[in-house]
Amino acid sequence: MRVKFGECLVELVQGDITSQQVDAIVNAANSQLAGGGGVDGAIHRMAGPSVMEETDRRYPEGCPTGSAVASTAGNLSAKHIFHAVGPVWRGGNGGEPGQLQGAYRRCLELAVEHECESIAFPAISTGVYGYPMDLAAEHSLTSVRDFLQSQGQPSLVRFVLFNGGAFGAYARVLESMTDAH
Ligand code: APR
User: Fold this and answer.
1) For ligand 1, is residue 121 a contact (CB within 6 Å)?
2) How far apart are CA 50 and CA 143, in angstroms?
3) 56 belongs to the catalytic site
4) Are 76 and 43 in contact (CB under 8 A)?
């Protein structure tokens, strides 16, 4: 599914984030940048050890929740990895929506700073961190739409959803945004 916001395209695909041919791939990291399973495990496995060496050296303090930091992409075909730290879901009253939106926004800012035309996101926080998929779809797509409408770049934002349930949740929200705009 593809929707245009001004000159920018938002695209939903079902698949594996590590195989995307884009300028920047976003990792669903933790605030220690310590690696893990899910997206984080898959990205580090495919990228190779140079990426963890780089983040250890450049970001010894890690990365706060709701933000992101950049590294090179090792063996991946992308040029950059943006390591984004989404919130752990604690019921929704602990600032989780703002933190999730902040993580997406910071990645888009990094994309602009690094002159990326295309970026691929996973559904940050919806795995181990327990963010409900329908709310994650709403909050992340709102953040991306607002950024694209105000900044007009990057040209392509792709969400890579791992299964049909995630794809459906994102598609419903994106569809409702096209009705509204
Ligand atoms: N490609 C795309 N999506 C994937 C992939 C993949 N290869 N692997 C898993 N997913 C999906 C999951 O199904 C989920 O919907 O990505 C979403 C995010 O799940 P997690 O990777 O568990 O990320 P998150 O919920 O943000 O938790 C982050 O998990 O791996 C650790 O180090 C990481 O501590 C951090 C925490």
Assistant:
1) no
2) 31
3) no
4) yes
Residue 76's region, left for phi above 0, alpha for psi from -120 to 50, else beta, is: beta
Those residues with Cβ within 8 angstroms of residue 150's Cβ, 6 or more apart along the chain or in another chain: none
Q: How far apart are CA 15 and CA 86, in angstroms?
A: 20
Q: pLDDT (tens digit, 9 = 90+) per residue, 115-151?
A: 999 999 999 999 999 999 999 999 999 999 999 999 9
In degrees and rounded to multiples of 5, residue 92 shows phi and psi of 100, -5
Whole-model pTM: value is 0.98
93 CA distance to ligand 1 centroid (A)? 22
Domains of the chain: 2-179 (3.40.220.10)
- 3-state DSSP assignment of residue 58: helix
CA distance 58 to 141: 30
